[in-house]
Amino acid sequence: EVCTKTAINSCSDCIKSGAYCGWCKQLNFTKPGEQEAARCDTQAALKERGCMEEDIISPKNVFFNVKNSTLSKNTDTTDDPIQLQPQEVYLKLRPASFDQRRIEGYPVDLYYLMDLSYSMEDDLRSIKSLGNQLFEALQGITKKGRIGFGSFVDKTVLPFTNTNPEKLKKPCAEKEQFCQPAFGYRHVLSMTADKATFQKEVNKQNISGNLDSPEGTLDAIMQAAVCGDRIGWRNSSTRIIVLTTDDGFHMAGDGKLAGILEPNDEKCYLENKIYSKSSEMDYPSVGQVATQLENNNIQPIFAVTKNMEGVYRKLSEMIPKSEVGVLSEDSRNVVELIKAAYNRLSSKVTVTHDSLPDNVKVTYTPKCPNGGGSGGDTGVCDNVGVGMMVSFDVTVTAKECLDRNISFTIGPLGIKDKLKVSVSTRCECECDDPQTDAHPYCNRQGKVNCGMCSCKDTFVGQKCECSIKGKDVSSLKAACQKDNGTECEGRGDCVCGVCQCHAIPGGLAYYGTHCECENESCEKYKNQLCGGNGKCICKNCVCDPEYEGPACQCKKSDEQCRSDQSVCNGRGTCQCNQCKCIEGYQRPFCNESSSTHYRKCIECLGFQTGPFSKNCSEACKSIHKFEMVDTLPPGKPCDVRDVENCRVFFTTFQLVGEDNYTAQILKKKECPELPNIYGIIGGSIAGVALIGLLILLLIKGIIYMNDLKEFRRFENEKKKAKWTDGANPLFQNATTTVANPTFTGE
């Protein structure tokens, strides 16, 4: 048992903190300076600290049976048998048990819901011939069995059904003589115990048809669940829907394919036994169907063909208290399938509850007659035979106080009997305090409330010892605040402008003007305050004479800080046998400086140039002695560039003390050679001339190439020219030839 306390200012706060928290109302229970929150703890802890048992306030849970009728053994003695005990309880919290028995011969209402699409033709013929066997199987389960019948295909709109008027009247193949018009869901027969009536109505049924493979299965299940008065479900019966089909199902959202946007509202719309909103309302979701089946205590059995088994097993996982069986090709095994599925359903008891507020939790621990079972958010017992008693321990936990009474129901799925649970919480203390407003414990300036003083308006303090009449309350509170912070650092109570510090568990207490001090928060060494070598005073260690350090962890010694008979070379202090160097120097002996400012002094001292040349003696006091040399000692020297960009080489040596150096400076500087001005000018002129020449040659080359291109084009055009010989029609030759007509050529 653990009492997890939070902010405790009253008995009520304590009771709300946890189920195991109690409050001691005993006067003078708290010690001087101890907070009133010390009154809150487990009962064992309070008794150990001296609180009398009669002074401990720890409200107990209240459990009261409102209705507790005895379980029925069979259905012969009553028409409304009881399978759950108790029926109503009242809890006032700060766990409950009920029993359930499977009654022999409990009434069963079985609704046979059949897919009459064209692919189920042979299955319909089988059902017509199996009516008697179905009734005999039902009578084998209970003498008070009734059966109903319904059928479904799909919505009579495209693309689910052919909307051609002739096809709507006869959606089957042309060769099919007996075919009924297309429909969504039809309720054929209400619950009846008359075998002949059932057989007659089933024999009237004919096959129908649609276009796509999925059917309007969920539409049919929803209407069969919510139209209870039309179907004929009894109040005191096991309600079962046997659904037979060889195809999948449409679900919420599929209606959009036909332009149906109105969501399913889970209401009954049977007109003349036909689902009238089939073409106006979308299919329901699986969640909606599961909810309505649970709310109406209906247990579905899905009798499907082998190819659809996997689909409906997934659906069964989302619908509590449902079973799946595999039909033969012509549904001849449907009777055996229903018997087996019913036995599995009825032998499994699953207990759950309806919705709860976020701050209330219900868990179940089953006590199954055959052992086993599973608990948690639901309670489950398997293999429960007829007449067996099953018990469940129910634990109702209120995580926090309820602002009003709440009610919820608990019960087995598929059974109408429910346990009504009403819950309220006990969050107030009943301390039975004296009625006087001037109790001596409170200096007669207040009354006792669960061991604490409730002072009059002009008095404050743990025992109302301080009068604030005529005083400025804000100034009194300000006197208890350090640097405008929290009153008494949150470690005490401000009484009349003076901090009354709280006690610390273990017998110690906070102290100081603002309760800022305590002797338990100093640094530890080897898990001991101040290493066991000093005292903790107001969060700081005061070490014994031979020890030092923030946790008094070091013996006073400077052996490892000495170098050349000086401690830390005069550039630091020895703490915990280690040098703590002045900024700019490094351990272990503070003998190397990371500073580079003295480099500027080298140019000033050696060559009287540089930024310090005007006040060299003042700026370079750290170099007490320097000399100009022709050669430097072996080793890599330091260097610095002067104003002429020459490199000046030097070495330095640190003396004992802070900023204390000697230096050796090389007389000869290393300067860069001056550039050849004439060479630069001549080279520049030659370069410009060369670039100009190259530009002229480039221009000349471009002009030449362009002329050559034009000449070649002229030559090509010349070769292509054709010259023709033509006679001038005005030209007359000067020579005239006349032929002698008598000349024979001889």
TrEMBL record:
<dbReference type="GO" id="GO:0030593">
    <property type="term" value="P:neutrophil chemotaxis"/>
</dbReference>
<dbReference type="InterPro" id="IPR036349">
    <property type="entry name" value="Integrin_bsu_tail_dom_sf"/>
</dbReference>
<keyword id="KW-0479">Metal-binding</keyword>
<dbReference type="GO" id="GO:0009986">
    <property type="term" value="C:cell surface"/>
</dbReference>
<dbReference type="GO" id="GO:0005925">
    <property type="term" value="C:focal adhesion"/>
</dbReference>
<feature type="disulfide bond">
    <location>
        <begin position="227"/>
        <end position="268"/>
    </location>
</feature>
<keyword id="KW-0677">Repeat</keyword>
<feature type="disulfide bond">
    <location>
        <begin position="24"/>
        <end position="40"/>
    </location>
</feature>
<feature type="transmembrane region" description="Helical">
    <location>
        <begin position="677"/>
        <end position="703"/>
    </location>
</feature>
<dbReference type="InterPro" id="IPR015812">
    <property type="entry name" value="Integrin_bsu"/>
</dbReference>
<feature type="disulfide bond">
    <location>
        <begin position="581"/>
        <end position="590"/>
    </location>
</feature>
<dbReference type="InterPro" id="IPR012896">
    <property type="entry name" value="Integrin_bsu_tail"/>
</dbReference>
<feature type="disulfide bond">
    <location>
        <begin position="427"/>
        <end position="431"/>
    </location>
</feature>
<dbReference type="InterPro" id="IPR057073">
    <property type="entry name" value="EGF_integrin_2"/>
</dbReference>
<keyword id="KW-0812">Transmembrane</keyword>
<feature type="domain" description="Integrin beta subunit tail">
    <location>
        <begin position="590"/>
        <end position="676"/>
    </location>
</feature>
<keyword id="KW-1015">Disulfide bond</keyword>
<keyword id="KW-0460">Magnesium</keyword>
<feature type="domain" description="Integrin beta subunit VWA">
    <location>
        <begin position="10"/>
        <end position="429"/>
    </location>
</feature>
<feature type="disulfide bond">
    <location>
        <begin position="554"/>
        <end position="561"/>
    </location>
</feature>
<feature type="disulfide bond">
    <location>
        <begin position="517"/>
        <end position="522"/>
    </location>
</feature>
<dbReference type="GO" id="GO:0033627">
    <property type="term" value="P:cell adhesion mediated by integrin"/>
</dbReference>
<dbReference type="GO" id="GO:0005178">
    <property type="term" value="F:integrin binding"/>
</dbReference>
<dbReference type="InterPro" id="IPR057243">
    <property type="entry name" value="Integrin_I-EGF_CS"/>
</dbReference>
<keyword id="KW-0245">EGF-like domain</keyword>
<feature type="disulfide bond">
    <location>
        <begin position="538"/>
        <end position="568"/>
    </location>
</feature>
<dbReference type="GO" id="GO:0008305">
    <property type="term" value="C:integrin complex"/>
</dbReference>
<dbReference type="Pfam" id="PF00362">
    <property type="entry name" value="Integrin_beta"/>
</dbReference>
<keyword id="KW-0106">Calcium</keyword>
<feature type="disulfide bond">
    <location>
        <begin position="620"/>
        <end position="646"/>
    </location>
</feature>
<feature type="disulfide bond">
    <location>
        <begin position="576"/>
        <end position="616"/>
    </location>
</feature>
<dbReference type="InterPro" id="IPR016201">
    <property type="entry name" value="PSI"/>
</dbReference>
<dbReference type="GO" id="GO:0046872">
    <property type="term" value="F:metal ion binding"/>
</dbReference>
<feature type="disulfide bond">
    <location>
        <begin position="368"/>
        <end position="381"/>
    </location>
</feature>
<feature type="domain" description="Integrin beta subunit cytoplasmic">
    <location>
        <begin position="700"/>
        <end position="746"/>
    </location>
</feature>
<dbReference type="InterPro" id="IPR032695">
    <property type="entry name" value="Integrin_dom_sf"/>
</dbReference>
<dbReference type="GO" id="GO:0019901">
    <property type="term" value="F:protein kinase binding"/>
</dbReference>
<feature type="disulfide bond">
    <location>
        <begin position="11"/>
        <end position="21"/>
    </location>
</feature>
<keyword id="KW-1003">Cell membrane</keyword>
<keyword id="KW-1133">Transmembrane helix</keyword>
<keyword id="KW-0732">Signal</keyword>
<dbReference type="Pfam" id="PF07965">
    <property type="entry name" value="Integrin_B_tail"/>
</dbReference>
